Amino acid sequence: MKSCVALGVLALICGSQAASSALFPSILTGRATITPAADDPKAVCGADYGNKCLDCYNMLTCLGPNLEPAQTACPADRKYCDRTNKVCVAEQPPEADCLEPPKSKFACSSPNGFFPHPTNCSQYFECYNGEAINLECPPGYVWTTNGMGCKQRKVTADCGTITCKTGVIQVPLSNNATYYGICNQPSSLEGIVVVKCKGRLTFTGESCNFVCTTEGMFVDDENPAFYYECYKSGTKTLWKH
Description:
Helix content: under 10%
Number of strands: 19
Number of helices: 3
Largest sheet: 4 strands, antiparallel
Order of helices and strands: HHEHEEEEEEEEEEEEEEEEEE
Shape: elongated
Oligomer: single chain
Strand order of the largest sheet: 1-9-8-7
């Protein structure tokens, strides 16, 4: 009977996902702000189901007494968690402990979007109107650019970082070369500006280019009227546009 109740509540939560996504779109990624939480998530939820504020900036979806709550940071345009109404809001609620989080030195290479932390794979950034918000995955998880969410760290390759080398200005993210870092930038976090190649392009040492990973036809994201055709020629995979 307990399992039936739990499944029913989970179904209700899933059914309301579209409506709630505007409030906290990354609920399944386990987003959490760097600011230390005032309370333990399980202690806040207890045996309850539904939404609760963990602190001024983080929302919990409580899943009953036996499951870990799902935690997410409120989105940048509604960054405060209203404890009374249990929703994310744009205006600061009246709670006295709601202080502005510190601004990050991370330099947004695009006004909006998500970017990996250059040296700490458990952290990532959301850029909103050019302002970077520093976020962190739960313990034991890392940020993945494949799927744009937090995943459990199982192997070393799950952790993507950018390691600058002497004499080298541009370096790819270690586990996804669609991102790369511009080194020797003193005004940015860790001296690195993180950049995302456009569309399907991959950083190949000096610039972003199309790279075939398998045979097939792939749309040119910059010009959908064209496509890339990848094909085998001996031991090599080539492409034509």
